Amino acid sequence: MELAFVMRETPPPGCTVEQALAAVDHVSPAFEIVDSRCEMAGRIALDIIADGGATAGLMLSARRYDPRAQDLGRIGATLDHNGAIEESGLFAVVMGAPERAVHWLATVLAEEGDSLLPGDIILCGSAIKAWPAASGDRFTADFGAFGRLSIAFDRQSSPIGGGGPPTQSVVEGYPPREDSAAPLHHPSDGPPPLAGEDLRNRAGATR
Asked: Which residues pair with 65 in a beta bridge?
């Protein structure tokens, strides 16, 4: 369970956290799909880096929120796995406030002569630990004021985390994203309807 920040513009060099957040177009609830291509036991940081961060894909909610409308660190999420609540957490565990992850990345890239670009998607980091997924599993994340997001794994696919190919995952029962220019949703507008999109439309969308 993560918050995905989608950039509207490049933050200025030497930006503050507030300036980095001002460069964000919107934030959306998300799932990161993790898949390791090396043995999980005994992995060290260099193994994870060599494995591309163990990233297999991501799924974004179709709902977009103004990240400046409320304290993102106080957004919480609860994970339901096949009908049972497994874990919950606040996004304050991500560097104290998830927008600081955007500032940190912008700063590191600037030091290397690079920068965030419009349309870039930044996953801030999860509010909970990673959970293994197997064929037939269904997960629903309840982000409170930011709505809910569900993902189901095809029964013909391989488990995630076993060193094999990434599972091809689809969202069940949710309409695809209809309009990439959908207006921002403010939490005061009330809870949004359930929304999601096919993971295959977003896999590999990160830099």
From this structure: 27, 185
- Do 150 and 137 form a contact (C-beta atoms < 8 A)? no
Structural domains in the chain, sorted by start:
2-201 (3.90.850.10)
Read off the tokens for 122: 């930044």
Distance (Å, rounded) from C-alpha 43 to C-alpha 60? 28
- Range ranked top by mean pLDDT from 15-19, 68-72, 185-189: 15-19
Within 13 A of 13's CA, how many CA atoms are on the CB side? 5
Q: Which amino acid is at 192?
A: P
Please give the distance of CA 165 from its chain centroid, rounded to a whole number. 21
At residue 155 the predicted structure's pLDDT band, cuts being 50, 70 and 90, is low
Shortest CA distance to 106 belongs to which of 8, 207, 4, 10? Answer: 10
Q: Could you tell me the pTM of the whole model?
A: 0.73
| Angle value at C-alpha 50, between 102 and 207, nearest 5 degrees | 35
Contact 174, 195 (CB under 8 A): yes
